[in-house]
Amino acid sequence: MSQATLRIQKISGHAGSVPGEDTQREFTVCKLIDTTTCIGCKACEVACMEWNDLPFGETIFGNTYQTMPETRWNYWNLILFNEHEREDGTLMWLMRKNQCMHCADPGCLAACPADGAIVQYTNGIVDFQQANCIGCGYCIAGCPFDIPKLNHQTKRVFKCTLCSDRVSEGLEPACIKSCPTGCLHFGSKDDMKTLAEGRAKQLRDHSNFPHAGVYDPPGVGGTGVIYVLHDATKPEIYGGLPADPSIPWTVKLWKGPLKWLGNLAMVGGIIGLFVHYLRYGPKDRDDEDINPSGAKP
Amino acid sequence: MTNGWVDIKNTDMMLIMGGNPAENHPCGFKWAIEAKRNRNAKMIVVDPRFTRTASVADLFCQIRAGADIAFLGGVIRYAIENNRIAKDYLINYTNAAFIVKDAFKLPEADGVFSGFDAKAQTYDKSSWNYAGGDSGGKAVPEPHVMAAAAHPANGAPPPPPALPEKVAYDFSLQNPNCVFQLLKKHYDRYNPDMVERITGIPKDQFLKAADLFTSVRKDGDMKKAATIIYAVGWTHHTFGTQIIRTAAIIQLLLGNVGRAGGGVNALRGHSNIQGATDMAGVFDTLPGYLKVPTPADGSFDGWMKRITPKPAKPGPWDSWNYYGNTPKFAVSFLKTLYGDAATKQTDWAYDNLPKVDRNYSWVQMWDNMYNGIVKGIFAFGMNGVAIGPDSQKNIDALKKADWLVVGEIYPDETSEFWKSPGITADEMKKIQTTVYRLPCAGFAEKDGTFTNSARWLQWKNAALPMPGDCRLDQGIVAQIFLKVRELYKKEGGKFPDPILKLTWNYTDPANPSLAEVLKEINGKSFVDAEDPVTKQQIKAGQQVPGFAWLKDDGTTTCGNWIYCGSYTEAGNMTMRRDPADPSGLGIHQNWAWSWPANRRVLYNRASCDLEGKPWDGSRRQIWWSEATQKWVGNDVPDFKADSKPKDHMGPFIMNAEGVGRIFAPLGAFADGPLPEFYEPVESPIDNPLHPQQTHNPVVKRFKTPLDKYGTPKDGYTVVCTTYRLTEHYHYWTKNNPMNVQLVPEPFVEIPVEMADDMGLHGGETLKVSSIRGTYIAKAMVTKRIKPMMIDGKKTYQIGIPIHWGYRGIAEDEGKTALTVTNLLSPTVIDPNAFTPEFKGFLVKVEKA
């Protein structure tokens, strides 16, 4: 029941068309993360674990307040901490909530060869359906944000679901609900964009952040998760947020021209076989093949 | 807090110092973020480390731990120098215009106020007083009879000094002995150069902060409001009370007290610590902060005489002096305790109250246990070993105790003190302490009220059943009490009355319902009664609607006068959950119940000018209504409802003067009527203000072999502070896998420069030692604590989160060194509130 109200518009590795793929997106959801009001409290990390019943993992001290170096198959939402010195010498402690960006043009989905292992709903949420996953890991190569993570025991890949189960019931994602400072917002892409631009302007006008802006990268068609950054000209200082992410050219090539080249090669080979048979007929056996000893029939 | 959590959203300017609310109060910190987002409010953070709060601040100043009074004194000097003061507010709502006795002397070169007795290490505070005045406000000379009365011939002790009924004043603030001029003179020494020497904050940075904060009162404009927010970064010092006093003075100078978005706001450190102090979980108060009786009081009347203030004010003014009602609160309290045994004839059972003859505070108690005076201790949800200070002394004290009863949800350092690192098997065999471990309920398994920092009493229901054989705290206490009472009945004793005569009228005496207890705390009337002003009536046996109904004739009971009104005939007010906020000021009048009398912002009369009109029309809290001749508004007026503005009644109704105290007279504080900067007891430098009086002169040091205090000459040159993380809650979340996953191991934060000096990297193990003990943990090398120039000397500061010990998930797996942070901290305490100096002591740092 919970998935019934989500309509799929894109399916990985799927032969043939998808019923929803040409429909106009009426309402794409969007999570807005305002890094300028994030206090790194990790309520969102805990909420994600609790809602999704993720098992605990071992962590070790890493000379940082960051819980672990990167997301894991059982840790989908991670605040990245970075100490950054501005040009005027003042210090910033940047905290960026890191999770799946739910790209409009998902690299993971493009790279995935397994039918239905990755879907994108009409509301923009990109979801992994582990029942169809073959554990090949191509989605990991396809993601410009290094998000999907493989469980080596079960050979399935996992990532943030943008709480598709909650969203389909009209609830906000668990992380949004848990944020104590209201730095996380949820709503339609249009509304969140408006809110984000307004906040970025406020920062430029009142808070000595002349380069404040919104991160909504066009190279992946825009994302279902957008950031307000103190300095939108330097996304890399926020724990390696890529400046201009796009689907890797290898994936594009492989799933694009190479795929058709491959098809062409295969079909061409079959046609060639047929043509050759027409032209040259079946292979005749030489005398020597029939009677290796040389004796004439 | 004088204000509240939600009210913070109304502010224009925040000074967050001695506190780290983003990390330790993330939910309440929402309101600070709201103020930034919706009002472009500015945030200044001053802290020894660049914290998660600093990460969202507009301006951050790194300060040496313990140097706060120097910074705040500098702000006072800046405000006065640049005329950024609320003039009308200052003259009319504070004691700035009051004239102080000639005999009073400020600390200058010698670093002490007048009246210091160096041998006894105390002050004779009689000169810390206002001069008596005639009706015109001129100071009258001390009557000659005072000298004779001071040493009466019959050998009786001299009458204690009292505030003069009529105070001398100068509303022009020019008289050199008026409080304002003394304030100006006192903080004149706190110029920006001195501030830099003491705090390590570069002059230009300090001036930026002072300019920004006081900008709300530029040219005396009253529209804006600024708030000061603090926590235990201020209280954990031997001058903690005085740090807060300095902040209160700034807020009075700037006219921020009583204003929406203003005030002096303490962020309490535990869910119900406000409730604990309100209900007198400290030795020197009774519920509602009534002062405890002492042996010298002699009788109920003697006690009342000493603790009930009389108005002391300029002649033309009015002072409600609400503490003048103390006898009503005290009698009602004694009726709650002793019922029919408390009558006028029995002196209200005064004899049954313990008389507090000396200091019984936390550190003193452990010292008493170490010295064999305290034989046993009930430790309920309180890990005394990990708390310290000087944890080894507490461990050794427990070894000497006869018995220890622990009520806990996990085994901890206290309940297994014999397993502390360094104890040998032989030593363990010698320990004779009998230890009882009682399984108790966790917070989600109990109902009752939590009182938050905003003074809101919020009822909570139990969310889960208790596991196994756990018991509720009130059940355990009740059964112990009933058993003790039984023994007294059977065997008698030295003085059975306080036990035998105690009322215990609960439906289930062995497990009282907290709803019944709250009803009892609110109190009821034994007779029919009517309020003379509102004409409201109640019948005999009904709950009293509020503390204005309490009587001193034995016809009312009340367990805690400030909670009176929380459980009326209308029901349990603390259970209300109506989120409506028509004024938009975050008052939420019908959500839970706040003391006193559901007032949300204290001293809110001061939010209006002399005519009763709000200083800022966009944040109208209360105002004077000419039509109804009453104070009305969006909040409950913290004032006499029908007192006309022209009668000039002071807004600070709990002070005898009716006004805010810039100068705190007589016995208000042990160490001075005005805050003076003193160094922490373990200090890297001599006090630049007066090197021969470096420390607070009335701070006492303890004298067992375990009470050692280090100096730079002993090799302890690094300033150390201790603190808490968001991810852990004191010493119990080290048992919870979720928290342990977030922050798995203990660590010490050290500057990058210090790591370079020592040639070490983040993750390597460090040994931090004070003269008392050693703490071993991994180094977190960070840019967020920079080296500082303290009085011209390069000084390092480090920070240590407190959450680990020798029992927990990581500990039990052998993943830590099993040391406790407070092995390092010193046994010195604030002379007013007795809080230990957990922050700003000296250590040395080495590779382990």
Description of the molecule:
The complex is a heterodimer of chains A (297) and B (848). With 297 residues, chain A is α+β, with helices and mostly antiparallel strands. Chain A contains 9 helices and 11 strands. Chain A has a 4-stranded mixed beta sheet. In chain A, helix 7 packs parallel to helix 8. The longest helix of chain A has 24 residues. Chain A is elongated. With 848 residues, chain B is α/β, with parallel strands linked by helices. The two termini of chain B are 43 Å apart. About 1% of the residues of chain B have low confidence. Classes of the chains: A alpha+beta (297), B alpha/beta (848). Chains A and B meet through helix 1, strand 4 and helix 6 of A and helix 2, helix 21 and strand 25 of B.
Entry keywords:
heterodimer; A: 297 residues; alpha+beta; four-stranded mixed β-sheet; three-stranded antiparallel β-sheet; 9 helices; 11 strands; 27% helix; elongated; B: 848 residues; alpha/beta; six-stranded mixed β-sheet; five-stranded parallel β-sheet; 23 helices
Q: Oligomeric status of the shown chains? A: heterodimer
Which outline of chain A best applies?
elongated
What structural class do helix, strand and pairing data of chain B support? alpha/beta
Task: Give the total of beta strands of chain B.
Answer: 29
The radius of gyration computed from the alpha-carbon positions of chain B, rounded to a whole number of angstroms, is 27 Å
Give the DSSP E fraction of chain B (strand runs of 2 or more residues).
5-15%
Helix content of chain B: 10-25%
Total count of helical runs of at least 4 residues of chain A: 9
Task: Give the topology string of chain A: H per helix, E per strand.
Answer: EEHEEHEEHEEHHEHEEHHH
Chain pair forming the biggest interface? A-B, 39 and 39 residues
User: How far is the first residue's CA from the last residue's CA of chain A?
Assistant: 77 Å
Radius of gyration of chain A, taken over Cα atoms and rounded to an integer in Å: 26 Å
Strand content of chain A: 15-25%
The main pleated sheet of chain A reads as: 4 strands, mixed
* Spatial sequence of strands, sheet with the most strands of chain A: 9-2-11-10
Supply the number of helical segments of chain B.
23
Walk across the major sheet of chain B and give the strand order.
Answer: 23-25-24-29-22-28
How many strands of chain A?
Answer: 11
Largest sheet of chain B: 6 strands, mixed
Which regions of chain B have little confidence, pLDDT < 50, spanning 5+ residues? 144-149
